[in-house]
Amino acid sequence: MDQDIHLTTYSPIDNSLYVERPFAEPRQITAIVDRLHNAQQGWRSLALPEKIQLCIAALTRLQSQQHEIAEEICWQIGRPITHAGEEIRTFTERCSYLLQIAEESLAPLPISGDTTLIRYIKRVPLGTVLIISGCHYPYLNLANTLIPALLAGNTVLLCHSHQAPLCAERLIAAFKEEGIPDGVLEYLHITTDQTCELIASNQIDYVCYTDQYGANPAIRQQLAASAKPCYLELSGKDPAYIRHDADLNYTVPQVMDGAFYNAGQSNCAVERIYVHHTLYKAVQEKVSRWVKQLVLDRPDLPETTLGPLVNQTAANHVRNQLKLALKQGATPLIDPNHFQNAAPHSPYVAPQVITNVRQSMAIMQQPTQGPLVTITPVNYDAEAIALMNDCQFGCSAGIFTEDIESVELIGERLNTGTIYMNRCDLVDPALSWRGCKQSGIGSSLSRTGFDQLTRPKSFYLQAASGSKTSGHWMLKVAN
């Protein structure tokens, strides 16, 4: 088939063709966008409890398909089958929290005044939201923006990664089977050029874009050129700091899981580890033992704990970054021959930990998105803070210690989106999720996520001279 007119997904497991779909034709795209535009007013007027019930029903349907979804995730992106099933469980948990806070988050904000004046601010939908989603967490990342967008009264068009197209198909099917009105939630399989045309369209009111930094420069350029309001969630180069009082038996497994889960393919994966110099040797020993117990193999095998990267391009990037670091003087801790299934011309990449790195190296400055992490000793907190901040990315930072006051002080000085104490690579839907610097624009989750997908509309209701406003109105606004 002609790849110019067909979407093709090759499985990283064995490079077999796993999915093939025709790209949408221009007339199909126009029809879908018109349908979304025409459906928005009706969806907006539907009561919030009814929207919530539709979402709950769709999530329940997806949960019942967990086994099939896990297999599709495994074959599309190479995540071990024993881990893939966790995605839909975590996805539904995150969505459920957003459903719980929706009424409060979308409620009008009353402003106090005298009896002749009513003032309040409503949150109203933006219109039609385009969600362009990456493949590393093909369902989980969608929860951040999809549910708030729908509950706020927007219609949603989903354009998923070409590496995980079945996720879009299955997700939209679940909502449609549970009765979501036609034109409220749709998907398209389209090219990058077609995506850029959509971004420029006046019928798209907002764009949510999740992907690796630099993965699709044409989309970012189009967003900038069109001045389209948007939410961007891009790569990180996230640090973990192991202080002098950290419990290494707890800390090392936490940090390494944050570095190597999903083969390190996460925008908030740990990619830089800073360790108090008194623990440096002990951490290296424990980290080496932890990495060597990983099983790199086909992800459809139950014993596998580390699968391939999503494709050959991603694998080549990690290998090239490692090769350059070693050429610049870095020292590897892991013998690559320990992982016999790693192959240079495949997505199967041996996990590696390197030391003797300098902050100026590319591996300390540019996202890796793979099973590769650095360890650097530091002498005191101020040095760790300076090094953690010395990077153009900022999703999150994990600090491992028994001293909560120190974490709060350190956290205040870190230029990042989220501060963890004794955790890492974690997204809590009750907290705002946003990156700073080159890691993103805008925020998702928590109440701030609903703010992002609505606009404020102010009401100033002045009673006629000598009359008073109705107490019923004020009560209605307050509720």
Automatic annotation (TrEMBL):
Keyword Glycosyltransferase assigned: no
Xref: Gene3D superfamilies: Aldehyde Dehydrogenase, Chain A, domain 1, Aldehyde Dehydrogenase, Chain A, domain 2
Listed GO MF terms: oxidoreductase activity, acting on the aldehyde or oxo group of donors, NAD or NADP as acceptor
Every Aldehyde dehydrogenase domain range: 7-458
Source superkingdom: Bacteria
Active site residues per record: 233
Entry keyword set: Oxidoreductase
Similarity-based family: Belongs to the aldehyde dehydrogenase family.
Name this polypeptide is given: Aldehyde dehydrogenase family protein
Lineage: Bacteria, Pseudomonadati, Pseudomonadota, Gammaproteobacteria, Oceanospirillales
